[in-house]
Amino acid sequence: MKKEKEWIKVTPEEKDLIESIRNYNKSFPDGYPELLWFVQQLFDNMLRQPYF
């Protein structure tokens, strides 16, 4: 069954996050721990969190 594609506009930061996740998934299971750390940092920086 063919999936329908959906197109959305993304910011440059969102594009970097998506590409980094894809690169990490390609590298798994041999993986690069630094890449996982990088993906987590990108995600954390994109969240709007109140400062305490």
Task: Jot down its keywords.
mainly alpha; flat
Succession of helices and strands:
HH
Summed up, the helix count is 2
- How many beta-strand elements? 0
Question: What spatial form do the alpha-carbon principal axes imply?
Answer: flat
Largest sheet: none
Structural class: mainly alpha
**Residue ranges: pLDDT <50 for 5 or more in a row?**
none
Residue-averaged pLDDT: 87
Gyration radius from CA atoms, angstroms? 14 Å
Strand content: under 5%
Q: How helix-rich are the residues, as a percent range? A: 55-70%
Please report the distance between the alpha carbons of the first and last residues.
49 Å
Structure described in brief:
58% of the residues lie in helices and 0% in strands. It has two helices and no strands.
Written overview of the protein:
The protein is mostly helical. It is built from 2 helices and no strands. The model has no long low-confidence stretch (mean pLDDT 87).
SSE layout and pairings?
Blueprint: H1 12-27, H2 33-46
Helix pairs in contact: 1-2
